[in-house]
Here is the input.
Amino acid sequence: MAEQKPEFLRFTGHRQFAQRLVLSTLSGRPVHISKIRSTSATHPGLAPHEISLLRLIEAVTNGSAIDVSYSGTTVVYQPGLITGTVAGAGASVGDIIEHSLPANCNRGVTYFLMPLALLAPFSKAHVNVRFSGPGVITAATHATGDVSVDTFRTAVLPLYALFGIPPTRIELRVLARSCAGPGGRGGGGVVELRFASQVRLPKTLHLNRRPGRIRRIRGVAYCTGVSASHNNRMIHAARAVLNALVSDIHVAAQYDPSPLVATDKNAPGKKRKLGIGFGLSLVAESSAQGVLYAADEVAPPEGGVVPEDVGTRCAYQLLELVSQGGCVTSAASSTVLTLMAMGSEDVGRLRLGRDVVGREETIALARDLKTFGASSWGVRDIDDDDTGDVIVSVKGTGVGNVGRKVA
Amino acid sequence: MDGQSHKPHRQAKKSKDKKKEHTGAPNPKAFTFTNPGKLAKQAARTHDIREKRLHVPLVDRVPDEPAPRLVTIVGPPGVGKTTLLKSLIRRYAKETVSDPVGPITIVTSKKQRLTFVECPNELEAMVDIAKVADIVLLMIDGNYGFEMETMEFLNILAATGMPGNVFGVLTHLDLFRKPQALKDAKKRLKHRLWSELYQGAHLFYLSGVLNGRYPDREIHNLSRFLSVMKNPRPLVWRNSHPYSIIDNYRDVTHPTKIEEDEDCDRSIELSGYLRGTNFAAEGQRIHIAGLGDFTIASMEALPDPCPTPAMEQALAKASGKTGRRRLDEKDKRLYAPMADRSGLKITGDHIVITRENGFAFDKDAEDVERGEGEQLIIDLQGERRLLGQTDHGVKLFASGEEITQVSEEADTGRKSQRRARFAERDEWDDEELPEDEGFVSGDDLDGSDVETEFNEQKLGKMFRKDADKTQDEDIAFADSDSDLGSLSSADEGLDSDDDDDEDLDSDEEGAAVRWKDNMMQRAKMLHGKRQPYRAVDLARFMYDNSLSAKEALQKWRGEDVEEIEEDIEKEEDDTFFRRVGKEGDDDAGEDRYIPKFDYEALAGKWSTEDAIEALRTKFSTANLVDEAEGDEDDEGEDDEDGEDEDDDEGDGAFEDLETGESHGPEEAEYPEATLEAEREKNARRKEELKLRFEEEDREGFKNDKAVARREGGEEEFGEDDWYESQKAMLQKQLDINKSEFESLDETQRASVEGFGAGKYAKIILESVPAEFVNNFRAKIPIIVGGLLATEDRFGYVQVRIKKHRWHKKILKTGDPLIFSLGWRRFQSLPIYSISDSRIRNRMLKYTPEHMHCFGTFYGPLIAPNTGFVCFQSFSSANPGFRISATGTVLSVDESTEIVKKLKLTGTPSKIFKNTAFIKDMFNSPLEIAKFEGAAIKTVSGVRGQIKRALAKPEGHFRATFEDKILLSDIVFLRAWFPIKPHRFYNPATNLIGWQTMRSTGQIRRDEDLATPQLKNSQYRKIERATRRFNPLRVPRALAADLPFKSQIVQTKPQKKETYMQKRAVVLRGEEKKARDLMQKLTTIRKDVVAKRRAKKEEKRVEYKKKTAEIEERLQNKEKRESKAYWEREGKKRKPGDAGGGGGKRRK
Here is the structure.
């Protein structure tokens, strides 16, 4: 029985928690994360959303072992194989895994969707997960900086197509919308991700040319539990800024009544309205294939912001992101770079804006990828124009999907 | 002659209908096919043939300078492997190697090298070599035919991915006496090989041995074939894994460690050509077949020990100097570190040096070419020196100069006033700066200039003579550091040095002030001229783990890290918790997908027209003409954009729209100006349209995609050329890989690319068992295979497996089996199963005889579609075919779902109508609770259901059936019991000695244990009591009510006595006498017959004896004859005395 377990990769701190779990699951290296908010006097240890994420990963994998220390400041995670939704194992209702988020969760549901979508192409079976419960925030979140599900659907999921992962079999259904509840915690949304495109080895991608010119702007304005006119006001304000640049702007308005969430388990009849608010998500589409800039803005849960402000801020944010340049914005860069690193053993090129590369998250991703055994990135300036963008060349590790069955 | 009549011409066939008159209209038959089906069939056939040629396009990752092809020579012992190897070496390198062991690399042509490996006759070695061989020379004794090893090797090859080039080599052909027999044997063996490989497989014939080598002509033919070989289709496994075959090894453990403990873990250095994909720059996991898994401690690319002439030329061209060439120096055409070439041979822990002319050297002779071994001896013969007594100087620092002597003046103190280092630097930098691009190259240079001037200042505080530090200095340090801030932050090499410098300089106030002034200026100047932070720096800081991500970014941007830290330092004294507070801030940060924006600033920025217009270039509404012009004069001034907005420029006439005034040269010129302006406007619009077209049209030269297409030389592919287009795409990606690596600078490239195939590299491994070194045999090939991330994990592997048809026994579930899967060879306990109507996997006790089945075992997670071979043991002790099974991986998982059937039986204890109480199936109500609602069945097929446990007798339950059951019925519950394979993994570490797990049967045999026989499992005689059924009794009342048709007909018992019953029969008189006589006669007759039989028996025994004698004599004769025949034949078959090479023939 001479079987040597590969030793744990050790990390500290709570930053990049989701990313490390994803990389660990994909590469199969066990991780040991310590000192998670150990200095915090009020909330030491894992936050509710992180525990939820651990549970989610456990649900879609087989054979993973999670060990959280008593204080919650240390997590030992031994990854299993990504199995997805297998009937009889974890899937409770039909062919779908029901994942309930707790009421004190303050991250948007995209915090869970982003890692889940990264795991999904490498899964053995389809990944169908429905997020429900009193903690699902489908809107962008103000305090924690999560994007809305609309941005995820329109600006992140289409990028999977570039890796040879057919987008027609990926579906995100927003069954109920919700903004963040009071104090930024909780919501009542229901979101369902159906990811039926499993691949053996995603190919790499080459977005090294100029990002093209922005042709049109699409978007979704959503409001839950407030007057539907907020939508129009946001759209109007955003258009006021953007009309000067693009004429082809279409922003859909989505009004929903605020979700009713049971407050008390013992009294199911007792419900209250949760997740009232409004926000705007804008996506600028470029003439080059696969280049999308997405901006998200939402009214803070404590209120006090008029819809016009949200609209203009979102538009400004979009302009700022466009001016940062590159082919991928910061919201989607980690997804793209991780897929490139996990894909075939070829070199892919990605053009990123200087400010996108120069984010702490990007640097941390590069370091984490290297720790998990991927080769380091090549970084070089673009020399044929003066945009100041940076080309990151990523060599894949050829990890791919071992779980996928043949015949 | 006249009478001769010629045969008359045959009459032309009379067509039935008279030929029609030509009408002049086009002949309809002229433009059709004579045979309409034929063309279609022909077309179909050509298409079939064309399609058959196509294979799924695979990436070919063979680099430009590939590693030498690996040629292995395989065959049973005594077949002439070594002789062939020697002959080939002789043919290519014109050298003689007396004991060729280990891989031998030879330059064979201008651009090609071959590595020859002789595969020893051990199954482990054959398995390993089959995984890496590019070309296989399969040696067959022509006089004997195929042997077991050959067939085994062919089957291993087939299971691990057949390399395209397998050649048969027939030897010992000189032993045939009759030409016809030789011809027949050749033909027979050729066809046998063809049926093993493919029709038309190459077979070479080697006849006798001359001078210990095969005839030159035959070897020449073979070598020609090896040289002109094309690249075969790459194998998937080798195309996705890095690997190497080791051609040299060294034990690099520290000798003291070995002295302390003989069996300590060693560090070894393996070197060989890298093959397959790239080895990772660091932390590559590898498996050495027969040794185990390791992480490469360090790796280093070495210069190629056996370069091809083409490579040497290229190198000479690149470096600009031709290599040292001397007449007496031979071309290095052979590299065989493990063989005894050039008089040096390393075997395990000792070195054998052979030299023909004895061991007397002139060690002072300079220009003598010496072998490695000779050099070693010379070094040994050199006079002993004390420890530390060298010709070399002392080097205090890694980068410092060597000090050979200590100058006298060194101790006399300073002669001149010390000058601040910065002043020097300043001058120097000032000169340099104009060319300097910024801080980066300054950085690079910094390393060197610090070295030169650092010799004394770099010394630590301890070494300093005037170590008079005072409190004042500390303060001075602090305040100067803040001044230094911007400089040191940008200059990473400096900030550690600065404090030292200042300590030294603090006593010289004036100087300090001077250089400080200077520095401020310099810093300002630099800030002014600073280029935008460059990507190259980022690549360096990004992976510098001593910096946090934040610090790395700050460093890259050249922001002041120092000042912040300094602030903290200042406040540290009074607020003790400050630092912690700062960390707390860091803690509070969460990962964000939306970066934080200052919306006030954003609003300020984007509400201005200028900013919007500047951004317009990124939108499709951009004015391309302006942009193009902007680009042109971009080099001169940057802020042109503001003026770019107005369309009409150039003639100086423009209109101020706000004031309504128009400024222009002349009012009078206005009409002409308008005309001109109109023209101008039109021209601009045309220009704009043209530019837009160029950008948006598919072929436009400003369209990025089109540019890429043109650059990549991508051709257009039609619908039918799907295959070609796929191949082109793969090729394009390969080109991109290459160009991308080339565009990176050296340091980045090494870490991104890793160690590419074709390089010669040295791999250092730590903690290798000492047995590896002790048991090392150069004959056994050592193969280093890189592991992918998932192959390091363990779990259950589901495979499709089939017992080999030549293997004698079937395989039993749970018996240990040795798998050769991926790079690894290991023993595991497979469980066989079969899909039961696609619902479940049912366990099988034994593998089916001629069918595939599933197997599940615990082992490394190897990607699906990988082939494997299985053995029950590697030893050659068992005479049969050793490959027991082959198959492919289907899937990997962390759990299994194999079940076996479980039947629970019970008997009814009480029966009601359709309900019955069942006993003896369960023991407790808890068990029953688990099976509530389960379907049950009686033997006779009455179906039912378990309802509930009974309260009273433990383990009884109530069940309902579709009909009333009998008390004698047995009730079954059919259930499925999950089986889990044992988590047993035993790597076959044959290089360091290993023990296999034995099967139960083997242990019983070895330990002489009887197989336990369970009483219940034994067969007994089946006793079936005849069942007696009571007659059917219909109650009289019911019978009376039955309709007439169903009335039961029953005959009443007879009341009167019958005729026969009334009478009795008695013998009398004559009859009685006759009977008596007859009895006597038969008795006599029986006695006679018995006597006759006894006599006959006697005679038969005699006869049998006689025939047995004859039989024996006949058999003896036959035996004698056959013995004589085989003696005669055997002599023919023994290797002739002419060759004398292969003395290792077994038997």
User: Anything to note?
Assistant: Chain A touches chain B through 101 residues (CB under 8 Å). Chain A has a mean pLDDT of 89. Chain A is about 25% helix and 25% strand. The two ends of chain A are 31 Å apart (CA to CA).
